[in-house]
Each structure stands twice: as C-alpha cells, then as structure tokens.
Amino acid sequence: MRPYRLRSGSRAVAAVLLAVSSAACGSGAETGSDGSGGPGAGDPYFPQSGNGGYDVLHYALGLSYDPRAHRLSGTATITARATGDLTAFNLDLRGLDVEAVTVGGVRARWSRDGQELTVRPRERLDREGRFRVVVRYSGAPETVTDPDGSEEGWLRTADGALALGQPVGSMAWFPGNHHPSDKATYSIAVTVPKGLRAVSNGEPDGEETKGGRTTYRWRVGEPMASYLATVAVGRYETGRTKTPGGTAVYTAVDPEQAAASRAVLARIPEVVAWAERTFGPYPFSSTGAIVDRPEDVGYALETQNRPVFPGAPDIGLLVHEIAHQWYGNSVTPRTWRDMWLNEGFATYAQWLWQEDHGGGSAQQTFDALYAGGYFPDAESNEALWAFPPADPPDAARISATPVYWRGAMVLHKVRQTVGDDAFAALLRGWAQEHRHGNADTGEFTAYVEESAPDKDFGGIWEEWLYGEGRPARP
Ligand SMILES: [Zn+2]
C-alpha cells in the first residue's frame, strides 16, 4: 500500500507528501486441546486475525450489493484442509448478520463474539481432511478505522463502493481466515444494479444481466492473501491490453479520472516489462489498475493483479504498486511485523526506476534521507529514525515512515555490500524463492547471508534493520 500514511487526515498535506514520495521514489497457531482451532493465527500486532486449525484452499464468494440501500448479501463457500482434528473452528467476520452455516452440506451450530465466528460442525473434522463450509450472510458492511486512523473495509464511494483490506478490512465483507499467512485461490461473483460495474482481482470470467441486475464474475487462479482482495462497484471506463510479455492488462477508471489517468495507465505494459527485467517473471495471470476518485479513498493499495489508486497515479506510485505484485502479493509477509519486506522493496523499486530513467541514483536518495534533507519538513525527516523497520512498536505503526524508507535503506546497504550485479540477482532470487508463498525477516536475512557467504551483514541487521535511532554512519 500506501506509499505514505497520514495520521493528520489533512488532504492538503496528503497531496504534498504523496507528490514527494513519488518524486523521490511510495499460521502458525496450534489446535487447542479442546479440539477447537483457536481464534488467532499468532500475529504479534493483530492477535485475533486469522485462526488456527485449518488452511483455506479456495474461497468462492457470491455477493450482491445495492449501493442505494447499502446492503450486501453474500454466500461464502470456503474449501479448507484441517491441520488438526477439529470439533470447532473460527472464521473472522466483522458486522453483518449470519443467516446459516453448513459444513459438508450439513447445518452446523455457530456463535459469534466480536470478529470471531465459531463454527461447530455436526461431526468432527479429521486432521488433513478437506472440508467445505458455506456461510450465508447479509447486512450493511462496515468501514473499519485502523489503529493508525486510516479507513478500510467497505468504503462507500460517490457511485458505489470500494472494498480494501490492509490489514484487517476484508472481514467486513466476507468471512474467512483473515491473516496474510493463509493464502488461497478465489472466485468472486458480484451482482449489482444494471448500469453499474463490479471489478475485482484476477481475470474476468463472464457477466450476465437479468431482472435489472448484472453479475460480474472474476477468477483468481494464483494464491492471494485476503487483505489483497478487492471489489470496486461503480461506473468505470474499462480497458484491456497486453504487456510485451503477453500478460493481460485490465483497467477500470472512474469517468471523472479518465482523462487524467490515460497517459500514466498506458505505461502499465512498460512498467511491468521493466519490473520483469528487474525482479523476474511477473507472478500473476493479469495486471492492471482501478482508479477511483481521490475523495473516495485516501491512499493507494496494491490489491492483487490490479492496484487501487485514489485518482490518477503518477509514475512513481504506479511503479510502487506494481512492484508489490512481486514483493507483498507473491512473496507475502508471514505476519504484520514483516511489513517492511513489502514496503521497503516497493519503495526501493521506485529508487531503481528513477535510477534507470534518468533520475537521481538510489545512492543519492539514500544520502538525502540520511542527511535529513529528503522530506520537505523536519518532522518527517526525523520520523525516519523513530523505530527499526523490522520491529514496529505497535499496530498503529506497521505502515509508518521507517517501514518504507528505512526499509529501502536496508536494501541499499545490502546492495553496497554485495555490489550491483549480486544485488540484482538477489532481488530476483528472493522473489523466486518464495514465489506465491510467505516469508519473514529472519528468512530474508538468512537468504542474503547464504547468497554472499564471504560478506558480513551483522552490522546492517544490528544497526539498520533492528537498531534504535539513526545509525552513526551512513
Ligand atoms: Zn506500498
């Protein structure tokens, strides 16, 4: 996401900082002894997110939304594998009314406590067995305010809605195992009043209109973390093309933003081709973008296949969100502590793009950050040193400045140590090693060390990745 997160909420400040950022650069839970899966996946910042005892393989979501009534009704068919013998398991669901739950086609008992929906199947689920749970639900989906004050979940827009889920908003529109450690494939069908369109992740899989309503189907064939799922409902101008490598590009743009977006979105094939040369093969079957109005959403997010933008992005922001398809979406953090593996890489991608396209070098960007002259105000320059990128102090700061820019500085220190060629190989190798999987900071440092056994990275990890304050030397 979110090349710069703002706690002030001031749109004017937001515009300035977004401009700066783009110019410069933007389950392991155990099964309980009582046979229940447990209410969390063990995340250090969001302990209730995700659940223990099972691994989701596929979500089939059938949704219907009427923006005027602001009413969502849905059927979630979840195919999962039990990782222990289960007499009960939890799903995460926020708000909405549950109407019925079945497991294996048989009605199941269920109860709710906050975001935890506990399901008790009629018969015990055996370890390693596959099972299918179907949840029917409806209601007014909620907008979620995060610990840092930003809004996600189900956002109402001028002409419809936009669903965003980093870090915990997806549970506001479908029940699931809402933690990045459990990735799955998806099919998403959304029915909206005729005249509106519903855009989601993956590739279009047909549409049909009957009785004054249109159903749009989307299919996501590669694993996706639930925080990267999106649905955009509204009036959109759509486009399709291909990248030079043959990847399909689908775009959906709010008509008000169409003219301003045209030139930059036309560069998606060029950006993906550059990113493939830099990071390796594109990890998904399609790419693209969704552009809504700036007043609809306060930030950009790297939703899988097609990132969401608050108005026409500039090239730096486009590069950032496309780079996330490798770093974040394909190689996904194991917990929210590992956010710098998303944002440090996506920020560094912007530095590399700039370097390759006649702008300043990554070294110059690094030097300006270290010298405290990068951001237009002293407060932001100082904020860079507020905490170590691999260890945000709390949930409100998983998307704060050090995670982005100091994270990118860590990568630059690695590059200085191994040299340009080995660093280029390392960027590609890391993306390949964990393609469509999860990874954490310890795996990253081990990977770097194994890739250059004759180099010493101890000082970089100690001072730049885990150390408090500004390192004594650049
Ligand atoms: Zn980002």
From the spread of the alpha carbons, the general shape counts as globular
**Mind telling me the CATH class of the largest domain?**
Mainly Beta
CATH-wise, what's the superfamily of the largest domain?
A: tricorn interacting facor f3 domain
CATH topology of the largest domain: Immunoglobulin-like
- Structural classification: alpha+beta
Give the neighbour order of strands across the main sheet.
Answer: 5-4-8-2-1-12-15-14
Oligomer: single chain
CATH architecture of the largest domain: Sandwich
> How many separate structural domains?
2
Structure description:
- The chain is α+β, with helices and mostly antiparallel strands.
- Helices cover 28% and strands 29% of the residues.
- The protein is built from 11 helices and 22 strands.
- Helix 3 (268-279) packs across helix 4 (315-323), helix 4 (315-323) packs across helix 5 and helix 8 runs antiparallel to helix 11 (458-465).
- The two termini are 27 Å apart.
- Bound molecules: zinc ion.
- The site of zinc ion has 9 residues, from helix 5.
- Zinc ion binds next to helix 5.
Task: Show the helix and strand layout.
Elements: H1 11-24, E1 54-66, E2 71-82, E3 89-92, E4 97-103, E5 106-107, E6 109-113, E7 116-120, E8 130-139, E9 143-145, E10 151-157, E11 160-164, E12 184-193, E13 197-200, E14 203-210, E15 213-224, E16 231-234, E17 237-242, E18 248-253, H2 255-265, H3 268-279, E19 286-292, E20 308-310, H4 315-323, E21 331-333, H5 339-356, H6 362-371, H7 378-383, H8 401-418, H9 420-433, E22 437-439, H10 441-451, H11 458-465
Parallel strand pairs: 1-12, 18-19, 19-20, 21-22
Antiparallel strand pairs: 1-2, 2-8, 3-7, 4-5, 4-8, 6-7, 9-10, 10-11, 11-16, 12-15, 13-16, 14-15, 17-18
The structure holds zinc ion (ZN).
The site of zinc ion (ZN) has 9 residues, from helix 5.
